[in-house]
Amino acid sequence: MRLRHRISGRGAISNDAGRYEIFAREVICDGWDDSEPLPPLRTTVRDEAARSLITYNRSPDLPFDRSINPYRGCEHGCVYCFARPTHAYLGLSPGLDFETRLVARPNAPDILARELSTRRYKVAPIALGTNTDPYQPIEKTRKITRDCLSVLKDFNHPVAIVTKGALIERDLDILAPMAAKGLVRVGVSLTTLDTDLSRRMEPRAPSPRRRLRMINRLTEAGIPVRVMMSPVIPGLTDHELEALLEAGREAGADAASWIMLRLPREVSPLWQEWLAEHEPGRSKKIMSRLREMHGGKDYDPRWGHRMRGEGIFAELIAKRFNAAVDRLGLAIRTPDLRCDLFARPAQTGDQLPLF
Fold it and tell me: Looking at residue 304, what is its pLDDT?
Protein backbone atom coordinates (compact mmCIF):
# COMPACT_ATOMS: atom_id res chain seq x y z
CA MET A 1 0.00 0.00 0.00
CA ARG A 2 1.35 3.37 -0.92
CA LEU A 3 1.18 6.10 1.71
CA ARG A 4 0.94 9.80 0.98
CA HIS A 5 1.65 11.82 4.10
CA ARG A 6 0.23 15.30 4.23
CA ILE A 7 3.18 17.50 5.15
CA SER A 8 2.40 20.75 6.92
CA GLY A 9 3.53 23.89 5.15
CA ARG A 10 4.33 22.21 1.84
CA GLY A 11 2.43 22.26 -1.43
CA ALA A 12 3.25 18.89 -2.99
CA ILE A 13 2.06 15.71 -1.32
CA SER A 14 4.50 13.24 -2.91
CA ASN A 15 8.12 13.15 -3.96
CA ASP A 16 8.32 10.82 -6.95
CA ALA A 17 11.64 10.62 -8.76
CA GLY A 18 12.14 12.80 -11.81
CA ARG A 19 11.60 11.49 -15.32
CA TYR A 20 15.32 10.93 -15.95
CA GLU A 21 15.92 8.69 -12.94
CA ILE A 22 16.39 4.95 -13.32
CA PHE A 23 15.02 4.05 -9.90
CA ALA A 24 11.69 5.06 -8.37
CA ARG A 25 10.94 5.74 -4.70
CA GLU A 26 7.85 4.52 -2.89
CA VAL A 27 6.70 4.88 0.70
CA ILE A 28 5.14 1.63 1.90
CA CYS A 29 3.67 0.35 5.14
CA ASP A 30 5.97 -2.27 6.73
CA GLY A 31 3.32 -3.55 9.11
CA TRP A 32 4.53 -1.62 12.13
CA ASP A 33 2.65 1.25 13.75
CA ASP A 34 2.84 4.20 11.37
CA SER A 35 0.68 6.56 13.43
CA GLU A 36 3.61 8.69 14.58
CA PRO A 37 3.99 11.88 12.59
CA LEU A 38 6.88 12.21 10.21
CA PRO A 39 9.72 14.49 11.30
CA PRO A 40 9.57 18.04 9.93
CA LEU A 41 10.74 18.35 6.34
CA ARG A 42 13.45 20.99 6.48
CA THR A 43 14.58 23.20 3.62
CA THR A 44 18.17 22.67 2.51
CA VAL A 45 20.18 24.90 0.20
CA ARG A 46 23.33 24.08 -1.74
CA ASP A 47 25.44 26.49 -3.74
CA GLU A 48 26.06 26.23 -7.45
CA ALA A 49 28.78 28.09 -9.33
CA ALA A 50 26.98 29.48 -12.36
CA ARG A 51 28.97 29.51 -15.60
CA SER A 52 26.41 31.70 -17.34
CA LEU A 53 23.33 33.51 -16.11
CA ILE A 54 21.31 35.13 -18.88
CA THR A 55 19.00 32.59 -20.55
CA TYR A 56 17.63 33.45 -23.99
CA ASN A 57 14.35 32.24 -25.48
CA ARG A 58 12.52 32.58 -28.79
CA SER A 59 9.02 31.87 -27.54
CA PRO A 60 6.33 33.97 -29.26
CA ASP A 61 4.23 33.56 -26.09
CA LEU A 62 6.60 35.66 -23.99
CA PRO A 63 7.08 39.44 -24.03
CA PHE A 64 10.82 39.10 -23.34
CA ASP A 65 13.69 37.22 -24.93
CA ARG A 66 16.01 36.85 -21.91
CA SER A 67 15.77 36.10 -18.21
CA ILE A 68 17.86 35.43 -15.10
CA ASN A 69 17.13 33.22 -12.10
CA PRO A 70 19.27 33.47 -8.95
CA TYR A 71 17.76 30.27 -7.49
CA ARG A 72 16.64 26.81 -8.58
CA GLY A 73 13.59 25.45 -6.81
CA CYS A 74 11.21 27.60 -4.79
CA GLU A 75 10.27 27.40 -1.13
CA HIS A 76 6.92 29.10 -1.70
CA GLY A 77 5.72 25.60 -2.61
CA CYS A 78 2.98 26.57 -5.08
CA VAL A 79 1.63 23.17 -6.06
CA TYR A 80 0.63 24.35 -9.55
CA CYS A 81 4.05 25.81 -10.44
CA PHE A 82 4.88 25.11 -14.10
CA ALA A 83 8.62 25.24 -13.26
CA ARG A 84 8.58 22.11 -11.10
CA PRO A 85 9.70 19.79 -13.94
CA THR A 86 13.02 21.70 -14.19
CA HIS A 87 14.15 20.05 -10.95
CA ALA A 88 14.33 16.75 -12.81
CA TYR A 89 17.38 18.13 -14.66
CA LEU A 90 19.17 18.17 -11.29
CA GLY A 91 18.31 14.55 -10.50
CA LEU A 92 15.73 15.73 -7.97
CA SER A 93 11.99 15.32 -7.68
CA PRO A 94 9.64 17.99 -9.06
CA GLY A 95 7.52 17.19 -5.99
CA LEU A 96 8.69 17.95 -2.47
CA ASP A 97 12.33 18.25 -3.55
CA PHE A 98 11.42 21.29 -5.66
CA GLU A 99 10.32 23.22 -2.59
CA THR A 100 12.75 21.79 0.00
CA ARG A 101 16.04 21.11 -1.82
CA LEU A 102 17.00 24.47 -3.26
CA VAL A 103 20.00 25.66 -5.23
CA ALA A 104 21.49 29.13 -4.81
CA ARG A 105 23.83 30.77 -7.30
CA PRO A 106 25.95 33.14 -5.20
CA ASN A 107 28.21 34.18 -8.07
CA ALA A 108 25.20 35.27 -10.16
CA PRO A 109 25.88 39.03 -9.75
CA ASP A 110 29.49 38.66 -10.93
CA ILE A 111 28.48 36.53 -13.91
CA LEU A 112 25.71 39.00 -14.79
CA ALA A 113 28.14 41.94 -14.74
CA ARG A 114 30.56 40.00 -16.94
CA GLU A 115 27.88 39.12 -19.50
CA LEU A 116 26.55 42.67 -19.65
CA SER A 117 30.10 43.98 -20.17
CA THR A 118 30.87 42.01 -23.32
CA ARG A 119 31.05 43.99 -26.55
CA ARG A 120 28.57 41.71 -28.31
CA TYR A 121 25.84 42.25 -25.71
CA LYS A 122 22.78 44.07 -27.06
CA VAL A 123 20.48 45.54 -24.45
CA ALA A 124 16.84 44.49 -24.04
CA PRO A 125 14.71 44.10 -20.90
CA ILE A 126 15.72 41.22 -18.65
CA ALA A 127 12.98 39.25 -16.91
CA LEU A 128 13.73 38.33 -13.29
CA GLY A 129 11.69 35.59 -11.63
CA THR A 130 10.32 33.76 -14.66
CA ASN A 131 11.17 30.28 -13.39
CA THR A 132 11.41 30.54 -9.60
CA ASP A 133 10.58 33.46 -7.33
CA PRO A 134 13.56 35.79 -6.80
CA TYR A 135 12.06 36.87 -3.47
CA GLN A 136 11.43 33.47 -1.93
CA PRO A 137 12.33 33.18 1.80
CA ILE A 138 16.02 32.29 1.38
CA GLU A 139 16.65 35.61 -0.38
CA LYS A 140 16.32 37.30 3.03
CA THR A 141 19.73 35.97 4.04
CA ARG A 142 21.39 35.19 0.69
CA LYS A 143 20.61 38.57 -0.98
CA ILE A 144 21.56 37.30 -4.44
CA THR A 145 18.55 38.96 -6.07
CA ARG A 146 19.42 42.26 -4.41
CA ASP A 147 23.02 42.04 -5.65
CA CYS A 148 21.83 41.27 -9.19
CA LEU A 149 19.55 44.31 -9.07
CA SER A 150 22.50 46.44 -7.97
CA VAL A 151 24.37 45.29 -11.08
CA LEU A 152 21.42 46.14 -13.32
CA LYS A 153 21.14 49.56 -11.65
CA ASP A 154 24.85 50.23 -12.25
CA PHE A 155 24.39 49.44 -15.95
CA ASN A 156 21.08 51.32 -16.24
CA HIS A 157 19.65 48.06 -17.53
CA PRO A 158 15.85 47.59 -17.81
CA VAL A 159 14.32 44.76 -15.78
CA ALA A 160 10.85 43.25 -15.38
CA ILE A 161 10.30 41.39 -12.10
CA VAL A 162 7.66 38.75 -11.36
CA THR A 163 7.15 37.80 -7.71
CA LYS A 164 4.81 36.87 -4.89
CA GLY A 165 7.42 37.79 -2.28
CA ALA A 166 6.88 40.77 0.00
CA LEU A 167 10.65 40.86 0.53
CA ILE A 168 10.80 43.00 -2.61
CA GLU A 169 9.91 45.93 -0.36
CA ARG A 170 13.40 45.68 1.13
CA ASP A 171 14.84 46.73 -2.23
CA LEU A 172 12.82 49.90 -2.74
CA ASP A 173 16.06 51.87 -2.38
CA ILE A 174 17.27 50.25 -5.63
CA LEU A 175 13.97 49.89 -7.47
CA ALA A 176 12.52 53.36 -6.91
CA PRO A 177 15.45 55.23 -8.58
CA MET A 178 15.36 52.72 -11.45
CA ALA A 179 11.62 53.24 -11.85
CA ALA A 180 12.14 57.00 -11.99
CA LYS A 181 14.31 56.39 -15.07
CA GLY A 182 11.78 54.03 -16.68
CA LEU A 183 13.95 50.98 -16.08
CA VAL A 184 11.73 48.68 -13.99
CA ARG A 185 8.25 47.20 -13.85
CA VAL A 186 6.96 44.62 -11.34
CA GLY A 187 4.34 41.93 -11.84
CA VAL A 188 2.70 40.60 -8.68
CA SER A 189 1.11 37.17 -9.02
CA LEU A 190 -2.24 37.02 -7.26
CA THR A 191 -4.06 33.73 -7.69
CA THR A 192 -6.95 34.04 -5.24
CA LEU A 193 -8.36 36.36 -2.59
CA ASP A 194 -9.33 33.35 -0.45
CA THR A 195 -6.79 33.21 2.39
CA ASP A 196 -7.50 29.56 3.24
CA LEU A 197 -7.22 28.39 -0.36
CA SER A 198 -4.00 30.36 -0.83
CA ARG A 199 -2.47 28.82 2.30
CA ARG A 200 -3.22 25.32 1.04
CA MET A 201 -2.27 25.89 -2.60
CA GLU A 202 0.79 28.17 -2.16
CA PRO A 203 1.68 27.48 1.49
CA ARG A 204 4.80 29.61 1.99
CA ALA A 205 3.90 32.56 -0.20
CA PRO A 206 2.57 35.76 1.39
CA SER A 207 -1.19 35.90 1.91
CA PRO A 208 -3.38 37.62 -0.70
CA ARG A 209 -3.90 40.57 1.64
CA ARG A 210 -0.15 40.92 2.13
CA ARG A 211 0.42 40.89 -1.62
CA LEU A 212 -2.13 43.65 -2.10
CA ARG A 213 -0.33 45.69 0.54
CA MET A 214 2.90 45.02 -1.34
CA ILE A 215 1.36 46.39 -4.56
CA ASN A 216 0.36 49.49 -2.65
CA ARG A 217 3.85 50.05 -1.24
CA LEU A 218 5.51 49.58 -4.61
CA THR A 219 3.19 51.95 -6.42
CA GLU A 220 3.52 54.55 -3.66
CA ALA A 221 7.28 54.41 -4.29
CA GLY A 222 6.66 55.17 -7.97
CA ILE A 223 7.19 51.62 -9.25
CA PRO A 224 4.62 50.54 -11.87
CA VAL A 225 2.91 47.25 -11.00
CA ARG A 226 0.94 44.73 -13.03
CA VAL A 227 -1.50 42.48 -11.17
CA MET A 228 -1.21 38.99 -12.64
CA MET A 229 -4.02 36.46 -12.22
CA SER A 230 -1.71 33.57 -12.77
CA PRO A 231 -2.91 30.94 -12.96
CA VAL A 232 -6.65 31.05 -13.52
CA ILE A 233 -7.96 27.70 -12.26
CA PRO A 234 -11.27 26.72 -13.87
CA GLY A 235 -13.83 25.56 -11.34
CA LEU A 236 -11.75 26.80 -8.41
CA THR A 237 -10.65 30.45 -8.82
CA ASP A 238 -12.14 31.66 -12.12
CA HIS A 239 -15.16 33.14 -10.33
CA GLU A 240 -12.79 35.59 -8.58
CA LEU A 241 -11.44 37.17 -11.77
CA GLU A 242 -13.31 40.49 -11.57
CA ALA A 243 -12.92 40.84 -7.80
CA LEU A 244 -9.22 40.09 -7.97
CA LEU A 245 -8.59 42.65 -10.71
CA GLU A 246 -10.60 45.23 -8.80
CA ALA A 247 -8.57 44.57 -5.63
CA GLY A 248 -5.35 44.95 -7.58
CA ARG A 249 -6.55 48.22 -9.08
CA GLU A 250 -7.54 49.58 -5.68
CA ALA A 251 -4.08 48.67 -4.38
CA GLY A 252 -2.49 50.76 -7.13
CA ALA A 253 -1.78 48.41 -10.05
CA ASP A 254 -2.01 50.09 -13.47
CA ALA A 255 -1.97 46.94 -15.64
CA ALA A 256 -3.21 43.36 -15.58
CA SER A 257 -2.70 39.97 -17.23
CA TRP A 258 -3.90 36.39 -16.88
CA ILE A 259 -2.65 32.88 -17.66
CA MET A 260 -4.64 29.65 -17.54
CA LEU A 261 -3.43 26.83 -15.29
CA ARG A 262 -0.64 24.87 -17.00
CA LEU A 263 0.13 21.24 -16.12
CA PRO A 264 3.32 20.22 -17.98
CA ARG A 265 4.98 16.87 -17.31
CA GLU A 266 5.13 16.05 -13.58
CA VAL A 267 2.92 18.99 -12.60
CA SER A 268 -0.26 17.19 -13.69
CA PRO A 269 -0.01 14.21 -11.29
CA LEU A 270 1.15 16.51 -8.48
CA TRP A 271 -1.83 18.79 -9.08
CA GLN A 272 -4.28 15.88 -9.22
CA GLU A 273 -2.87 14.51 -5.94
CA TRP A 274 -3.43 17.92 -4.38
CA LEU A 275 -7.01 18.04 -5.66
CA ALA A 276 -7.76 14.59 -4.27
CA GLU A 277 -6.48 15.70 -0.86
CA HIS A 278 -7.80 19.26 -0.67
CA GLU A 279 -10.67 19.63 -3.17
CA PRO A 280 -12.05 16.13 -3.88
CA GLY A 281 -15.54 17.43 -4.63
CA ARG A 282 -14.27 19.76 -7.36
CA SER A 283 -11.52 17.59 -8.81
CA LYS A 284 -13.53 16.04 -11.63
CA LYS A 285 -14.97 19.37 -12.77
CA ILE A 286 -11.59 21.15 -12.71
CA MET A 287 -9.80 18.47 -14.72
CA SER A 288 -12.71 18.21 -17.16
CA ARG A 289 -12.55 21.95 -17.85
CA LEU A 290 -8.80 21.83 -18.39
CA ARG A 291 -9.05 18.90 -20.79
CA GLU A 292 -11.79 20.66 -22.74
CA MET A 293 -9.34 23.49 -23.37
CA HIS A 294 -6.48 21.18 -24.41
CA GLY A 295 -8.08 18.75 -26.83
CA GLY A 296 -8.78 16.11 -24.21
CA LYS A 297 -5.28 16.24 -22.70
CA ASP A 298 -4.18 17.61 -19.35
CA TYR A 299 -1.88 20.05 -21.15
CA ASP A 300 -1.01 21.12 -24.67
CA PRO A 301 2.45 22.79 -24.97
CA ARG A 302 1.90 24.37 -28.40
CA TRP A 303 2.98 27.98 -28.76
CA GLY A 304 0.04 30.33 -28.93
CA HIS A 305 -2.07 27.81 -27.04
CA ARG A 306 -0.36 26.73 -23.82
CA MET A 307 -0.96 29.97 -21.87
CA ARG A 308 -4.70 30.30 -22.55
CA GLY A 309 -6.14 27.10 -23.96
CA GLU A 310 -8.95 27.19 -26.50
CA GLY A 311 -12.68 26.60 -26.74
CA ILE A 312 -15.76 28.16 -25.19
CA PHE A 313 -14.52 28.34 -21.60
CA ALA A 314 -11.17 29.90 -22.54
CA GLU A 315 -12.96 32.44 -24.72
CA LEU A 316 -15.33 33.29 -21.87
CA ILE A 317 -12.42 33.96 -19.48
CA ALA A 318 -10.77 36.19 -22.10
CA LYS A 319 -13.99 38.18 -22.62
CA ARG A 320 -14.53 38.60 -18.89
CA PHE A 321 -10.93 39.73 -18.44
CA ASN A 322 -11.12 42.25 -21.28
CA ALA A 323 -14.39 43.67 -19.98
CA ALA A 324 -12.99 44.00 -16.47
CA VAL A 325 -9.77 45.77 -17.48
CA ASP A 326 -11.76 48.17 -19.67
CA ARG A 327 -14.10 48.98 -16.80
CA LEU A 328 -11.26 49.41 -14.30
CA GLY A 329 -8.95 51.35 -16.62
CA LEU A 330 -6.19 48.76 -16.38
CA ALA A 331 -3.72 48.44 -19.24
CA ILE A 332 -2.86 45.19 -21.00
CA ARG A 333 0.09 46.60 -22.91
CA THR A 334 2.39 49.00 -21.08
CA PRO A 335 5.07 51.43 -22.29
CA ASP A 336 8.37 49.79 -23.14
CA LEU A 337 11.12 49.98 -20.56
CA ARG A 338 13.94 52.28 -21.59
CA CYS A 339 17.01 50.75 -23.21
CA ASP A 340 18.72 53.97 -24.32
CA LEU A 341 20.29 54.61 -20.91
CA PHE A 342 22.28 51.38 -20.87
CA ALA A 343 26.00 51.96 -20.35
CA ARG A 344 28.86 49.87 -19.04
CA PRO A 345 30.08 51.47 -15.81
CA ALA A 346 33.75 52.41 -15.50
CA GLN A 347 35.93 49.55 -14.32
CA THR A 348 39.20 49.54 -12.44
CA GLY A 349 41.99 49.64 -15.01
CA ASP A 350 39.92 51.32 -17.73
CA GLN A 351 41.81 53.97 -19.67
CA LEU A 352 40.46 57.49 -19.25
CA PRO A 353 38.91 58.99 -22.40
CA LEU A 354 41.23 61.30 -24.28
CA PHE A 355 38.55 63.89 -24.95
Answer: 87
